Amino acid sequence: MASHAAHHASGWAAGLVAAALVAQAGAAGPWHVYSLAAFAAGVAGGTAPDWLELAWWRRSRRLWVTHRTVTHWGVAWVAMLVFAYRSLGHRHGWAAPLFGFACGGLVHLIADWPNPLGVPWLWKRHSLNWWNSGHCDLIVVAAAWAGALWLAQAAWGHAAPLAHWLGWLRTV
């Protein structure tokens, strides 16, 4: 698992990506309110798979599910991302924040994937087993921001490769 700080920093990167993609989809809204909502939700989504496990209704900080189970399930996060992206074109007010939240959650899973505990993408946990938890946070954050900056400049610059990829996502 990447540290909380690494998840938070990569969540900011996911928020940037979400805001850029919402703007490129033409769903930014008046004064870019929906892009800002996607950004804020992306930041929150960057740590969501961990805080969604907490049983907030109990006095002690207990988990209501085992760590890295249902809240880290890749299929659910990808499905949420695709559903929200496809809903952007219908001008639903909830689509942009949901898209940002899903971007953040997916980046969280990608950040957790390299350590030995892994992530349950389909059913069983899968790990790249590259490093132990908490190590190499700089690599995780740098990769998240490098990808975010590339995607953001491509989205706001209307780059052809990104438009081609997003066109395929709309057909799913």
UniProtKB/TrEMBL annotation:
Spans traversing the lipid bilayer: 69-88, 94-113, 134-156
Keywords: Membrane, Transmembrane, Transmembrane helix
Superkingdom: Bacteria
Short name of one Pfam family: YdjM
Protein name: Metal-dependent hydrolase
Native source species: Burkholderia humptydooensis MSMB43
Organism taxonomic ancestry: Bacteria, Pseudomonadati, Pseudomonadota, Betaproteobacteria, Burkholderiales
